[in-house]
Design brief:
Order of helices and strands: HHHHHHHHHHHHHHHHHHHHHHHHHHH
Shape: globular
Largest sheet: none
Radius of gyration: 25 Å
Mean pLDDT: 93
Number of strands: 0
């Protein structure tokens, strides 16, 4: 009888050990993750069902499911779905906390899930809980880094947090107090990200595509290296023809680095059939890219976006862009009709939406040739923009706003044409005439002066103009401009 009890005890212990929860990106888990980042959620759910059946103790399933929730909510901005899904965060964290505390994934996954929900909360304008989540995530990542310094998934998140913390605009300094655990610089974050990239080239690293996208955005937004960002993302492993998400990343960077024609081609080729989760914002992007080329058929893409998207952002801006399309196509009455929609529809929390509402409320119809020049410049067609603006001679206008906008836009165009001494003259004039006005022209002119002086290795003047930018608080785009100015000051401290 005693022998039977001993045998039973041994078998019980073995079964308990075999059933212990673990974290592992097995081939089936990797397949599910890959399908998620390609937005093939239906197929991912099939893999996840198999994973739960065949590997019931593999807690990595909670990480992959959280990615799906994150992408679904971030793309759709569906408030009702958000309320239904947000309880999943604590349920998944509780499940992971039952796992192996000695695994490098134990703290990492908890941090990742908190970061997913921080970004989601930001999308739904829940700023206080979002920054609280970031602070908790950072503490977990820092602790995990001490325990497992060679665990690269952990470093990919720390790198971007370290790079971004020093660029938080003064208007959001209350958030810095919530991020009490977070310290870092752009230089530190970039070096850490490059360390992860080097590792991913020499190892089978599941998060390689994520890191490539993050590094490209770091180069673009924080290091002020737009062309390097474009060349990097074009040679990356992202597949814009096979993933709407990859198409968004590559086309977005193309549009921000004067590669508008490439962006149009990428967006036209982005997959849209039923196996992929719908991403209506690609329609908005295609409309914007076409509008910046002065194509006459940009309007239907904005309308497609409005028809398919039922979230919070870019609604007012889509109607504004429809209005602009009408104006440059020679239909001012249609412009006014769409601007009424700007006042009636959407929210004004995002920069573009706020700008659209300001234009609608001021009831100031844009100068058509200045608008054409602005769109062409934004698309990277600087010489064509110059050809539109040069004959206008609006520096003699009695309209203060037109005179200011002309000086600003001439400065930006000359800057892009590498006629920087001339550009500085127009920027200084813009600052002098516009620093006490509510428009963004003077603030961005100061930022661009700082960037030109930084490029010329004149650190004293660069810092002076970055600080000037931070002192100006326009009603439009202040947050983004101030973040870039703080990033500039951060680079000068290297």
């Amino acid at each position: 009888m005693n022998i039977l009890r001993v045998c039973f005890l041994i078998l019980f212990c073995q079964s308990t050990l075999l059933a212990a929860p673990y974290f592992r990106y097995t081939p089936l888990a990797r397949s599910a993750y890959e399908k998620v980042i390609y937005l093939r959620f239906g197929e991912a759910y099939i893999d996840l069902a198999k994973l739960k059946l065949e590997e019931p103790d593999n807690l990595i399933v909670h990480h992959i499911e959280d990615y799906i929730d994150f992408f679904r909510l971030y793309i759709s901005e569906d408030k009702e779905e958000y309320e239904q899904l947000k309880a999943n965060k604590d349920r998944r964290l509780n499940a992971i906390e039952a796992g192996d505390e000695n695994s490098p994934y134990y703290l990492f996954l908890q941090a990742e899930i908190r970061l997913h929900w921080a970004l989601t909360r930001l999308r739904f304008e829940e700023y206080l809980p979002a920054f609280t989540e970031v602070n908790k995530a950072n503490k977990l990542l820092e602790k995990n880094q001490e325990l497992f310094p060679d665990f690269m998934p952990n470093l990919k998140n720390l790198a971007i947090l370290h790079a971004m913390v020093g660029t938080i605009p003064d208007g959001y300094q209350w958030s810095v107090r919530l991020l009490s655990s977070l310290k870092g610089t752009i230089e530190q974050g970039q070096k850490e990200m490059e360390q992860v990239l080097k590792f991913s080239k020499n190892n089978d690293f599941i998060f390689a595509k994520e890191v490539q996208a993050m590094y490209a955005y770091l180069l673009l937004h924080l290091s002020n290296q737009p062309e390097k960002a474009w060349q990097f993302i074009r040679s990356s492993d992202l597949e814009p023809g096979k993933s709407p998400l990859h198409a968004f990343v590559v086309a977005n960077i193309a549009m921000r680095t004067n590669h508008n024609d490439e962006a149009i081609n990428l967006l036209k080729a982005a997959p849209q059939d039923g196996i992929y989760h719908s991403m209506p914002f690609l329609e908005f992007m295609l409309g914007l890219a076409k509008l910046r080329r002065l194509d006459r058929d940009a309007g239907p893409h904005f309308q497609n976006y409005l028809d398919k998207f039922h979230g919070l952002h870019y609604i007012k801006e889509a109607y504004q862009k429809l209005a602009w399309q009408a104006l440059i196509n020679g239909d001012p009455s249609e412009y006014r009709r769409y601007m009424v929609k700007v006042r009636e529809k959407g929210t004004n929390t995002g920069g573009g939406d706020k700008n659209a509402e300001t234009e609608a409320n001021e009831a100031r119809t844009p100068h058509v040739e200045l608008l054409r020049a602005r769109l062409l410049f934004d698309g990277g067609y600087a010489q064509k923009a110059y050809d539109h603006i040069a004959p206008l001679k609006l520096d003699q206008s009695k309209d203060d706003y037109l005179r200011l906008e002309y000086a600003y836009r001439m400065g930006r165009i000359l800057q892009e044409l590498d006629r920087k001494p001339e550009a500085l003259v127009f920027f200084h004039k813009t600052i002098e005439e516009g620093e006490f006005l509510p428009y963004f022209f003077a603030c961005n002119a100061a930022l661009q002066c700082g960037l030109i002086y930084e490029e010329n290795n004149d650190q004293k003047l660069a810092k002076q103009y970055f600080r000037k930018c931070l002192l100006l608080n326009p009603e439009e785009y202040a947050t983004g401009l101030h973040q870039k100015a703080k990033a500039g000051i951060g680079r000068l401290k290297r």
